[in-house]
Amino acid sequence: MAQSISKSPLKLTEASAMLYPPLPLYRRLLRAHRVLPRDMRSLGDNYLKAEFRRHREVTNPVYIMGFLSQWKTYLDQLPLDPNSKFVGKKLDSTAFEKMSAEQLGQLYELMHAAKDVWKPV
């Protein structure tokens, strides 16, 4: 995992200034998916829409900050050029250790959905 440059923890107001509001972030993600192959775009769009719908009623600011920051990180990893190949990245092992049973179940379902999309015919 990347090391933080600052030694002091980031305050909630400072962190929120670095993030996009939910709706513009959602739109940017959908636009960024346009450069992906059709199957990947479909899978990504459906997952994105479901996650944002599922978190629409969340009121905990810390949880919202984490949710938005993870989607912003994902947005930063997506290719900008339609001709570039999206490679992705491996999930850090410490991230697995921090996941709840529900999150691991969702990740497992996503893995199988992705494998079904890319299954050789």
Automatic annotation (TrEMBL):
UniProt KW Transit peptide keyword: yes
GO biological process: mitochondrial respiratory chain complex II assembly; succinate metabolic process
Keywords: Chaperone, Mitochondrion, Transit peptide
Subcellular locations according to the entry: Mitochondrion matrix
Principal location listed in the UniProt entry: mitochondrion
PANTHER family: DC11 ACN9 HOMOLOG (PTHR13137), SUCCINATE DEHYDROGENASE ASSEMBLY FACTOR 3, MITOCHONDRIAL (PTHR13137:SF6)
Protein purpose: Plays an essential role in the assembly of succinate dehydrogenase (SDH), an enzyme complex (also referred to as respiratory complex II) that is a component of both the tricarboxylic acid (TCA) cycle and the mitochondrial electron transport chain, and which couples the oxidation of succinate to fumarate with the reduction of ubiquinone (coenzyme Q) to ubiquinol. Promotes maturation of the iron-sulfur protein subunit of the SDH catalytic dimer, protecting it from the deleterious effects of oxidants. May act together with SDHAF1.
Protein family according to the UniProt entry: Belongs to the complex I LYR family. SDHAF3 subfamily.
UniProt protein name: Succinate dehydrogenase assembly factor 3
Organism: Hypholoma sublateritium (strain FD-334 SS-4)
